[in-house]
């Protein structure tokens, strides 16, 4: 099972609060650079922030060239920064939640003191603690601390209502917490539901598009489940996004791009072609290729990747999953009870017969 990394959520949260254009064009790169400059110490840590400053995001040259971050660095620190360039690339991409840069190019220059940051209200200690727990699975200690701080700050911000709700759930008493969590165990407004609205049984599936076990569920379980339970009116299935990495986040947004009528067709297509696009030289471009048959063209896909409304939906799914304790995919809830990944169709049918309505 794929453990969900907090990195994807950190990038999603940043996108939610900043409105950064995703990629392509000088306007998108300029907005990304402004945001990166503002949060540079939180992205790379105080040590690197003292000797480096983001200077520009450079477009790639040639058909296969990636973008590069031009980084101003003090002369004495240039060699050390060069050795850590791979780490910088990783942290920048984790911050945005998708691949923004592929390389770092150093230019020597005088590093002036950073502008004084505006005062931000200190988050409630309970919210800070909740966000630190969410980031606990990230191995890089500096990135873990940075994402915890960013999450807590966003929870305090007026646009951080989704993360704030999660923090509030985490700090409730046991009885109140159970009541708050119960709302996520039924179809929510905006959920993608397969089956008749009045079907008595509810299966909620938290899935990541880069998770091989989720692809197995789609191939080996869904056909029989749909034939014998969903199409017969006995079960409705709710698909919720729980991306485990940046490319899974992109796939979730592209599935949303297909629209409500074609959403489950997009889910099936993405999972059936998982090996094809995940092993391609450019998985992101290959994803667009496999979805072209559903009417998701390149221009439409790029617009969807920059659509805050679609991103809010993915974030809402992730936050509901975290509130319910989801930490791997697939995780199934059947009639309000958690079953993790119970296995094949026989195991799921046995559960339905035991707890079915």
Automatic annotation (TrEMBL):
Domain Thioredoxin, first and last residues per copy: 172-357
Residues of the signal peptide: none
Pfam families assigned: DciA, Thioredoxin_4
Domain of life: Bacteria
PANTHER family in alphabetical order: GLUTATHIONE S-TRANSFERASE KAPPA, THIOREDOXIN-LIKE REDUCTASE RV2466C
Role according to the record: May be required for disulfide bond formation in some proteins.
Family label: Belongs to the thioredoxin family. DsbA subfamily.
Name of the protein in its database record: DciA family protein
Organism of this sequence: Reyranella aquatilis
Classification lineage: Bacteria, Pseudomonadati, Pseudomonadota, Alphaproteobacteria, Hyphomicrobiales
């Amino acid at each position: 099972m794929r453990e969900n990394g907090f990195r994807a959520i950190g990038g999603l949260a940043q996108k939610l609060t900043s409105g950064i254009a995703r990629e392509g064009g000088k306007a998108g790169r300029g907005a990304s650079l402004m945001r990166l400059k503002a949060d540079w110490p939180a992205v790379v840590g105080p040590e690197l922030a003292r000797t480096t400053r983001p200077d520009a995001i450079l477009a790639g040259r040639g058909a296969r060239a990636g973008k590069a971050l031009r980084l101003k660095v003090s002369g004495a620190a240039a060699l050390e920064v060069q050795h850590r360039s791979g780490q910088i690339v990783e942290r920048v991409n984790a911050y945005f939640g998708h691949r923004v840069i592929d390389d770092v190019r150093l230019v020597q220059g005088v590093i002036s003191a950073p502008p004084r940051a505006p005062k931000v209200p200190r988050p409630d200690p309970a919210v800070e603690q909740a966000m630190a727990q969410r980031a606990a699975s990230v191995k890089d200690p500096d990135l873990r601390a940075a994402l915890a701080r960013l999450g807590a700050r966003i929870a305090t911000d007026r646009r951080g209502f989704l993360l704030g709700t999660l923090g509030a759930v985490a700090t409730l008493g046991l009885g109140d917490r159970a009541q708050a969590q119960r709302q996520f165990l039924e179809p929510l407004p905006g959920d993608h539901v397969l089956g008749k609205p009045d079907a008595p049984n509810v299966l909620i599936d938290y899935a990541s598009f880069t998770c091989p076990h989720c692809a197995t569920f789609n191939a080996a379980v869904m056909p029989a489940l749909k034939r014998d339970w969903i199409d017969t009116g006995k079960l409705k299935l709710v698909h919720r996004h729980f991306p485990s990495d940046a490319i899974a986040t992109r796939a979730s947004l592209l599935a949303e791009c297909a629209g409500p009528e074609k959403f489950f067709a997009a889910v099936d297509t993405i999972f059936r072609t998982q090996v094809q696009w995940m092993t391609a030289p450019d998985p992101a471009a290959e994803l667009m290729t496999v979805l072209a048959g559903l009417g998701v063209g390149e221009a439409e896909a790029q617009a969807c990747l920059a659509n805050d409304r679609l991103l809010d939906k993915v974030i809402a799914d992730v936050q509901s999953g975290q509130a319910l304790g989801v930490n791997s995919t697939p995780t199934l809830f059947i009639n309000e009870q958690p079953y993790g990944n119970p296995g094949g169709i026989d195991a799921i049918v046995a559960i339905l017969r035991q707890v079915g309505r």
